[in-house]
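Forwarding these from the shared drive since the link keeps breaking.
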Amino acid sequence: MKKNIFAIWIIFSSCIAQNQKMANSLLDYEYQIVPLMEKYKIPGMSVGISLNDSIVYSKGFGFANIQKKIQPDGNTPYSIASISKPFAATVIMRLVEENRLNLDARIKDLYPGYEERCKRILGYFREEMPEYTFMLENYHPERNDITLKHHLTHTSENAPGDKYKYNGFLFGMLSVAVETATGSKFDELVDSMIIDPLNLNYTASSQLDKSKKVMLDKIALPYNPSDSGFVRADFPNPKLNAGAGIISSVNDLLIFDKAINSNILVSEKTKNLQFQPYKLNDGSLSPYGYGWFTQKYKDQTLIWHYGHHPGSYSALYLKVLEKNLTLIILANSDRLSHDFDLGKGDVVKSQFAKTFLDLFVGK
């Protein structure tokens, strides 16, 4: 009996010690990110952390609305920019599981007027917005071997499958292809497959969703830094495509994260495929899978994505698989992502991610 009591006491003491260590790490992270927020000139942000699918931290900093002095919290909605891509990839892979979509289908067969539209947009960029020509100048819509898979893995430029290059514009084309293949609107698929079944009350498939007007009225307003502080910025394009447009909160994203971990949205086999680095034509590995970045850090697997709406919003979604640990940060300026060039595939370049990993994984 005494041995049993002693064993229980050891387990109980160990749990207390682990909980205390986690609490200390959370406080340390908060202590370190507030100066980072000031350094990178972020007016407001919300931070959420989950461990073993339980939210252990959810807090807002700064202002969601500077003029009205409204502070953000875990339920404050933001435009999540390219974190919309994991949502889109979830929908796409679910459709593949249901045999409603084939990733080997050619993009031109599922995108009406595709080749002509690409050439027209590239011409417009060259004439009016030369800084955006990079999105299409190495893309060859006349080719017959560009598939949905190539767009989903950011390998559709030049010779498809030869090289990874992050391109949110080309990823966004997937929503039109999905709509053609299924006969359903992309926002309706996001709603029916993710938002509604998970009861994401602080998430909308786009800023145009009239059914979420009350929630959308509470969106964190976007700002840009100025010499005198911050100036109000314009909202990004409110429409949804596969690459951007979803509005959400850190608490809702952690619910989404739990559903991913639990294989509720797609099967474990499909999830594991999404998390694997995509194999290029020469056998080398890309830093991107099917809708997610993936990399090794020390002995841990990092699955992540970032969001960057230039001049308005930014976001970070970071999973440490072996620890079942997730970090979400949403910000109402682009400065959470602006300086880190995360599209190249190394989340450790983000000071917000690196600080988190140092504390929770180790230096």
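-- next protein --
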Amino acid sequence: MTKTKRMILFAACGVILLGVLAAVLFRFVIPKETGICGDTATYKIVGDTLYIEGSGEMHNYRDPDSGAHRKLEDAPWWENRNSIRKIVIGEGIVTLGFNAFREMENLETVEAADTVDAVHWWTFEDCTSLVSFYGPGVIWVFPEAFKGCVSLKEFVGATGDGFLGSQFDEHAFHGCVSLERVEMQNTAVFYDSAFEGCESLREVTCSLAYEVGKNSFADCSSLESFPLDRCRADTIENGAFKNCTSLTSIQLPNGATEVPINFFLGCTGLTEVTLPEGLISIENNAFAGCTGIETLVIPSTVTEVHESAFRGWTAEQTIVVTDPDILPELAECEANIVTQ
């Protein structure tokens, strides 16, 4: 090879190397966009990752489609939202602003430092490719924060101990049909419809369920277990486990005075239920359609069984009554009634 050809070859290799180096820099090092997203918070986009850095609360942003909150602005990364696949929230950030990351259709993962304690209204609404959220400090998920996240499979929240540690507000996970696991190690409050319709949800871990709101787990047809026995007795509400067809065994908390309306309606997989002494009332449709229960013992303290509480039960099922005074209230029930 002549000297001229060698020089041309070296030059070509140099150009290629510079090109590769430039591509690596732009992909992994050099931000393609930077700016402010809070009074003391900044952001940068490097490659397909959005980094939130600094401290304190993020700004709140408006819904660009509906024009809601007109005094607010669009998130600064709105035009580049579909190039983002990952979000990393740095140490020092406390709250994720509402509408901040909505409609990031290609976002797949979120990793938040343990200083992040709240996910605001609509923060991740319609992030249809989001699969996992890891936020070991998150104790408050506001209404509709993850609404429409149809691919979300895993949510990991607060991992520390604390009274009323985690709070899941109304419809926080509305439409999250792929959600399989919710994990936190502290106490938790589940408000109305927080996980309603999460049909893939199998597992919820928490040290104590302080409150289980109305329809909070309704239509979670894959839910296999729930620590209801560790729930505050006076905070279980209507329809909480309606149509949870994979529940097999459940124990109401000591101190509970009623089985609320529609509480276990349609729980066809339920085979074993333990009702505590001190229970007073079994409300309308409380066990309607629970055709898998072979035997249910009603405590002697129960004085009221409402109409249709056991609607759909058959003669193959047995209800054991310890106080004969409630027999007239079971007159319409088709189950086998036994007194002891």
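The chain has a mean pLDDT of 89. DSSP finds one helix and 24 strands in the chain.

- D.
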